[in-house]
Write a structure and sequence with these properties.
Length: 252
C-alpha cells in the first residue's frame, strides 16, 4: 500500500515537471509583441507675436471719371505744350551761319505766336540800324525783301504798299514799285507791320524783329537771331569799306 502511494506521488511530480517544462518552451517560442514606444514630449516654444500694422492700399480710380484728375491732367498737358514750344523756340534761336537760314529762323519764330492771324494783311518795312532808326543799308533792305518771300510762302497775307497807282515806263524799263510818296496811296488799311533792327558785332550781326498792330501798337509776335558771318571786318557785307590807303609820290 505504501509502495503504491509512493509511485503515485512520483508520477504526479513527473507530470508536473513535464507540464512546467512545456510551458517554458512555449514562452520562449512565442513572438515578442512590440512594446508601445514612448513618445518623447517636446518642450512647447512660445513665440512673441508682434501686432502687424495694417497697410492702406491706394484706391484705384479711373482718371477719366474723376473731375479733379481731369483738371490736373489738363493742366499738366498744357504745361507740357508750353515747355515743348519753349524748347522748340530755343532750338530755332541758334547762331546761323548763312543769311538764308537767319531769315528763315526769324520767320519761323513769328509763326510760333498764335495771336498772329495769317488772314490779316502784313506790311514789312526795312530793317534799320539799332543805333540810328532813321538809317539803313543794302543789308537791311535785303533782309526785308527776303522776309517778304518767307512769310508769303508760309501763308501770310503779305501786301506790297509801295505799289503806285500806275505803271511807270522809261527807256530803261517798266516800274510799279516806288518810294516816291507822291505816287503812293495816302492811307493803308488795318494791317500788321513788321519792323526790324540789326546791330553789328564782332564776327556777328544781331537781328531783332517784331510784328506790331498798326492801330493799337500792340506787339503781336517777336523773333531774334544771330547771323555769324565770322568775318573780321563786316564792311564787305555792308559795303562801307574804306578805300585802300594810297601814298602820294612827290619829287624832291
Amino acid at each position: 500500500m505504501l509502495k503504491l502511494m509512493k509511485n503515485s506521488c512520483l508520477f504526479l511530480l513527473a507530470t508536473g515537471l513535464l507540464s512546467l517544462h512545456a510551458q517554458q518552451l512555449q514562452t520562449k517560442e512565442a513572438p515578442v509583441l512590440d512594446q508601445p514606444k514612448k513618445v518623447q514630449e517636446q518642450p512647447m516654444v512660445v513665440h512673441n507675436l508682434e501686432p502687424q500694422q495694417e497697410v492702406l492700399q491706394p484706391v484705384k480710380t479711373d482718371p477719366t471719371q474723376d473731375p479733379v484728375a481731369q483738371s490736373d491732367a489738363h493742366k499738366l498737358e498744357a504745361a507740357k505744350q508750353r515747355l515743348d514750344v519753349a524748347a522748340n523756340v530755343q532750338k530755332i534761336v541758334t547762331t546761323q551761319d548763312t543769311l538764308e537760314s537767319t531769315i528763315a529762323s526769324l520767320a519761323t519764330q513769328m509763326m510760333q505766336n498764335k495771336k498772329m492771324h495769317t488772314t490779316k494783311p502784313v506790311l514789312i518795312t526795312t530793317f534799320v540800324r539799332l543805333d540810328n532808326l532813321k538809317k539803313t543799308s543794302e543789308f537791311g533792305r535785303v533782309l526785308s525783301e527776303s522776309l517778304i518771300n518767307e512769310l508769303s510762302n508760309r501763308g501770310f497775307n503779305v501786301i506790297e504798299f509801295r505799289g503806285q497807282v500806275g505803271v511807270s515806263i522809261n527807256e530803261q524799263g517798266e516800274y510799279f514799285i516806288t518810294r516816291d510818296t507822291n505816287k503812293l496811296k495816302d492811307t493803308i488799311e488795318n494791317t500788321y507791320v513788321v519792323v526790324g533792327t540789326y546791330s553789328r558785332q564782332y564776327k556777328n550781326i544781331m537781328l531783332n524783329a517784331r510784328v506790331i498792330d498798326n492801330i493799337s501798337g500792340q506787339i503781336i509776335s517777336t523773333s531774334r537771331s544771330t547771323f555769324a558771318h565770322n568775318l573780321r571786318d563786316d564792311c564787305i557785307i555792308f559795303k562801307d569799306c574804306q578805300p585802300p590807303r594810297s601814298i602820294r609820290i612827290v619829287k624832291e
